[in-house]
Amino acid sequence: MTNRIKKSTICQHIGNYILNTDLINTYIPKAGDVGIFKVIELGKHTRLQLVDGKNHHIYPDDVVMAVFGTRYATSQLEGYVPTEPCQEYHVLGQGGVMGIMHSIHVKYELKGPTTLSLIGYATNENGDVLNTKYYQEKVTPFNNQKPTNAKIILSIGGSMDSGKTTTAGFLCKGIHNANKKVSFIKLTGTVYNKDTVFVYDCGADTATDFSYFGFPSTYMCEENELMDLYQSLLNMVALQNPDYIVIEIADGLLQRETKMLLSSEAFMNTVDEVIYSDGNSTGALSGLQILDSLNIKPFAICGSFTASPLLVKEVQAVTNIPVLTLDDLMVPSIIAYIKNLIRTTTASNTPNNSKVEKLPPLSHAV
What we know:
- With 366 residues, the protein is of the alpha/beta class.
- It has nine helices and 17 strands.
- Helix 2 links the parallel strand 13 (182-186) and strand 14.
- Helix 1 runs parallel beside helix 2 and helix 6 (281-293) runs parallel beside helix 7.
- The longest helix has 16 residues, at 223-238.
């Protein structure tokens, strides 16, 4: 093969391998299986994020190393690992996730997916297909215990692009500005380092996600697999002795894995506080109703809707849960505010921020 292989970021730990071309018409891939693909035609995706963390252009006839996986992205596309060998595959995610597209947002319909053919699988000397999941790191089974005394804050949102990551980033900035150590974990989503880089730049001492353990995405993972992944990520960031851990769950409240985790007593028992983001006022209020049905009351509402003072007024008029802007989140006094929340909820033995309405305004926190 004369073409230079462009190695996607999810394959960063894949070293020596044997290219097996005999399996392409017989083997049924699993999520994380590594393949060598040839680009056929460009569509939505014209770049891939490679092992250097940068986004590189791809062109027809380029050869890329990537993995099979799933994708759930309401504003982009939906795709799955194929259930049989195919003549053509699709780029599902810029971090190197390939599969078969099932649906695409109308704004990308004319472009369609970028298509590829499978040249062969990357195998070891025994002929086993290499898989990125836990390729370098070992899994830690979930054990119902936090490996650290750090306070865990969960950042969730009503939908994709509601502002969850921005909320998490600016919250980390506020914690950093208060001279406290903070780690960030993106627990679910599709591999792409934009979010972890952003939150790290905001001030997180550590920023990592599911791809650290080789997951191309978490869509369609079973609950026990997600919980083991969660424990593994917690144990990893606990080595940094953070005071706070901010965790983001991707996508919205109705998404499969988000619902699964928020409905899990074992998962929610590890969470000290919840912060909720949304893109508009009505979405924020309907999201609060869904969370209330799960006995979850966030300590604050944030998100892209807070860019509009009028939308903020609409929400503040009908709920006693504080609306915090990005400026509010990044001030050092956010620490005192959160400490007060944790202290009052612990004292009352009432989960999920039921005392939030009794707290003073953020600007008065000391």
